[in-house]
Amino acid sequence: MCVLVEDVNDQVPVFTQSVYRAEMSESYAVGASIVSVSATDADVGANARLLYSLREQDREYFTVVSVQPTNTGVLKVHRVSRPVLG
After folding, report:
1. Three-class SS state of 31
2. What end-to-end distance do the CA atoms of the chain give, in Å?
3. Beta strands across the sheet bearing 14-15
C-alpha cells in the first residue's frame, strides 16, 4: 500500500491587513459592497482556499461572499434597517 500526501492543512491564513475598517451610509442598498478582506494561506491546492463567514448575529444585516481565485471576502449589505417613524 502506498499513500501519497501532497499537502496537509497545517498553515494558518495570513491577512493582508491586521485591522480592516469600513464606514457605511444608511443609504447603502441591499447588495452594496462595504469592505473587502484578503488573506493568503501557505498550504497547497484545496487546503489553501479560504472561505469567509459571519457570526450568526451578524447575518441579519450582512452577507459575506468568498471569491476563491483571490482568497478575498466581500462584506455586503443583506438587509437595510429603516427607522420606525412615529
Report:
1. coil
2. 74
3. 14-15, 33-40, 72-77, 62-67
Residue 10 lies in a domain: no
Mean pLDDT, the chain, whole residue set: 88
DSSP symbol at 15: E
> How many Cβ atoms are within 10 Å of 17's Cβ, its own excluded?
9
Is position 19 within any domain?
no
Domain that holds residue 50: 29-77
Residue 56 resides in a domain: yes
Q: Does residue 85 form part of some domain?
A: no
Rounded mean pLDDT, 30-58: 92
* 3-class secondary-structure state, position 56: helix
**Residue range 48-74, pLDDT digits in tens:** 899 999 999 999 999 999 998 899 999
Q: What cell does 17 get? A: 491587513
